[in-house]
Each structure stands twice: as C-alpha cells, then as structure tokens.
Design brief:
The chain has 174 residues and is α/β, with parallel strands linked by helices. Helices cover 33% and strands 18% of the residues. The two termini are 16 Å apart. A 6-stranded parallel beta sheet has the order 3-2-1-4-5-6, with helices on both faces. 33% of the residues are buried. The protein has 7 helices and 6 strands, in the order αβαβαβαβαβαβα.
Length: 174
C-alpha cells in the first residue's frame, strides 16, 4: 500500500517550509479562515484555534458555533457567529446552510472540534463534507464523526486530517 501521502510533523522544522517562507506581508493577502465547532458543554478548542490562527498571521478569521453557547461566548469571542443548535447543545441539522455559507466564504475551513457526541451533529458533519468542495482541515473530535465512513474524508481532495495515533488506528480498522 502506498502511504506517500502521509506526512509527519517534526518538532524542529515546519512541515511545509515553502509556506512559511512565502507568508503574506499584508493582512489582506493572508487569507480567510472559517473555524467551526463547539457545543454547549465545551468550546475551548474553537477559541484556541481562533487565537492561534490570528497569531499565525491569518488575515480574517471567523468562528461559527451553535447558538446554545451564545450567552457564554459572546463576551469571549464577540465576533463569533451562531447557527441553530439541537437540544443536546450541538449543531442541529438545520445549521448546514450556515456552515456551508461560512465555509464557502473562506479560503479554508477548520472543523476544530468540541462538537460533542450526538447523532444529529454526525449527520450534519457528513452532509457538510459531501457538499463542501474547498480546502478542509479536520481535527480533535471532529475526525471521530467519520470513523464509520472514513472514505468521506480520506478520499476527499484538499483535505488535511490532524489526528492522534489512537484515532489513526481506529481509521485503519475501518
């Protein structure tokens, strides 16, 4: 089996040195990132992703979270946008249009994680990945939504999957 498409990050050198070298000097040319994730019980990785993206030099970064977190997050991330949530506090299936709209606006979409564990959000994530054709990065528990349907993300072009060794093992099993 050819695994030449798998890359491993070193702690001493950047994975894509040419990207670091050619980093845009103005914010207008630095790109647009959509960070999507969170649920009513956890949203820390979304905030971290937003902060780190801006520190790394992202031009414009927008965050989309379920509206169940709005009361808490509106002061922490005042520019965050919200989509419909389900009774569990995660994204509802009706949030698909909001997610697609933000993802299509961006140059790259990050499914940051903290989505919680509910079947409605799982259906939403699968539908999103099937409809969205742009650059996509999937990390943290967002990748767990595709354990039973790994080909949705493994065979998808322009997709970066950031996962742990245990998550990788689960993917190889499936």
């Amino acid at each position: 089996m050819d695994l030449s498409f798998w890359l491993k990050q070193s702690t001493t050198e950047p994975l894509f040195a040419d990207i670091v070298w050619s980093r845009p000097e103005s914010k207008a040319a630095a790109g647009k990132l959509a960070v999507i994730g969170g649920n009513s019980h956890e949203f820390s990785v979304v905030g971290k992703a937003y902060t780190q993206a801006l520190q790394a030099g992202t031009g414009i970064c927008k965050v989309l979270m379920p509206d169940a977190v709005k009361k808490v997050v509106r002061y922490l991330l005042p520019d965050a946008e919200y989509a419909p949530s389900n009774p569990s506090g995660g994204f509802a299936k009706t949030a698909l249009e909001n997610i697609l709209s933000l993802a299509n606006w961006s140059d790259c979409c990050l499914l940051a994680g903290n989505f919680g564990r509910n079947s409605e959000t799982a259906i939403l994530m699968e539908a999103f990945v099937q409809k969205y054709s742009g650059f996509l990065t999937i990390t943290h528990d967002a990748i767990d939504y595709f354990k039973t349907t790994p080909k949705l993300v493994i065979n998808r072009p322009e997709t970066l999957i950031v996962l742990s060794l245990s998550q990788l093992q689960k993917y190889f099993i499936n």
